[in-house]
Amino acid sequence: MQLSQPNQHMKEGSSIIKGVPKRINPVMVAGLFIGFAAFPSPAQTYVGGLVNGQVWSAANSPYLATNDVIVQNLTIQPGVTVQFMGNNQFNVPGFLQAGGTRTNQITFRGTNSASWQGIVFSGASNNCLFQYCIVQNANNSGIQFRGTPMTIQGCTISGNFSPGSGGGIYTDGSLTLQSCLVSGNSSSSPSSHGGGIYSSGGGGAVLTLQQCVVSNNNVSAVDARGGGIGCDGGTLILSGSRIVNNSANGNQCSDSFCHNYASGGGVYVAGPVQGQTATISGNSVSSGDRSSGAGIYCGPLTLTNSDVSNNSGYSSYGGSYGGGAYCGSPLILQSCRISGNSVNFVGCCAGPTYGAAAINCSDSAFDLIQNCVISGNSAGNANGIAFYPAIIFGGASGTASILNNVFYGNFNHPNNQVIQGGAGTIENSIFYGNDVGPTSMNVNYSMVPGGYGGTNNIDANIPINQIFTDTTYFFLANSSPCIDAGDPDPALNDVLFPPSKGGVRNDMGAYGGPGANQNLIFVPPLTIAPQPLSQNVNFGSTVQLFVGVTGADGPVSYQWQFNGTNIAGATSSTLTLTNFSLGNVGAYSVVVSDLARSVASNPAFINVAALTIKMYAGVTLNGNVGSAYLLQSAPTFGVGSVWTDLTNITLPSSSYVYIDYRSPTNTAQFYRLVPQ
User: Fold this and answer.
1) Handedness of CA 582, 583, 584, 585 (dihedral sign)
2) pLDDT (tens digit, 9 = 90+) per residue, 249-273?
């Protein structure tokens, strides 16, 4: 409604909805504006300082931290985003319950223009909950656990950095990660350890990873340790986890000769490592002086049903040791694959160079290598100087039992022994296609080139297809001379058919004897973790879906689908949808494949966020530019009306519109304008 003439009974100098003074003569309109809010302004809440007894909800998200947040008691509900506007920290000395879900996670991140100081649990309650949370782009470790042993579940820690140790996660005590992804983090300083995860190992701490992926993390230092995981003490336990494509680079100089070192491209642990159905693959170490343990550098090493493959070590001066692992005593490998690992000297200067391409272990009181496939490992350099064997090097005083294994296609330059150790025996094993002979140790009931010395060895000089069905898993051919050719001691009889063949007498190779496994022993199930997440999004927004993979055998390929149909060019672990529209609404999934298997993800449903329809009252003011007024409102009009100040307005133009955003919640509202 628009009125241009004053109501004569009103006192001049005060104007209301029914009129205005002639000397002011602005024209006022009380109207309703109907808007379809497809792009509603999101709620946002500013936070900072001490937080006690609060609940943060998705309805009031994002929570924008303008300074440090100190949590005494806080519950964060699924779907909340906590965004840091500056270089601040989220500190938890009290109790935090941050419980996201698989499909509605909680996100902690910095703004696009500023990083932040990460999350610190400092002497916090042991009952804290931290699950299905995303922590991104912090510049002082993504999460630190100080004096706070915890278990976290379903979390993604990515893209964080530390100027010290632990780019993604730092802990000084025991910590358990379940179904977590730690990816793309880094640390860099002269003494950095742990690009992805770092544990100081205090008090005999145990770092446990269950069904986790630690990938594409990096540590750079004068003495770089643990591209994926670095532990300066305690014990590391890996269960169903993958440590892949991490790197440790000794690329900072300690003196004018640039002496530097790197250890543990995938894992560095000063203490023991225990792995069950673990994958250590595609990791690397490189240094100017010495690099050790491209896959694993540790003390005692025990691996069962695990894969250590395609790790590589490089040195340009001092030497490179242990492509798969560089470990202490004892070494125990059961039902494992150790393949495609390498060490290389890539510089110009001669010097001591290589430890074993597969496993380099120190003096051992007892070593057991049983029912393993060890293949395609190599060591070499430009100068032809190599002092240690291609596969396994053990100390001269060690005692080893090497039973029912396959050694195939391993190479060293120049010719050196494939295995070197002290006392002990090799039995029921197959050596085929290696650069050199097996060992200085006693070898019995095995297939070796030329028959070799020892008891009941047979000559390997026959076509390979008469021995194995394949050169990936090395199952015995039905007519293989290795069937029922192992040690006849009843204690070593075959007990599981298949994979063993023939009678009960021990079969040579990885599938014979009492330790044979009926599964593909070194190929864990191909599993997608985490799964892609369903989301509600706004029109025009950018949407990202991503997956992690555990248990892959060899290279991984991806094919994303929309409502069951392949999306052209969508062949990476992340799918990005830009300028989201109604035509993009639907179910998204991905098919993940490795060398021999494929598995489809759960569908992620991407929908448009619910539309909000609101009706707003608007007031149009016409008057002289620069005139000042006080705008007031009241729920009733007449004698006794209670007027509330809304805002002071100085007209920026001769016609100005004021929108009252409170009006959708008011049943009626009257407005008046008071000159100032």
Assistant:
1) positive
2) 886 555 555 567 888 999 999 999 9
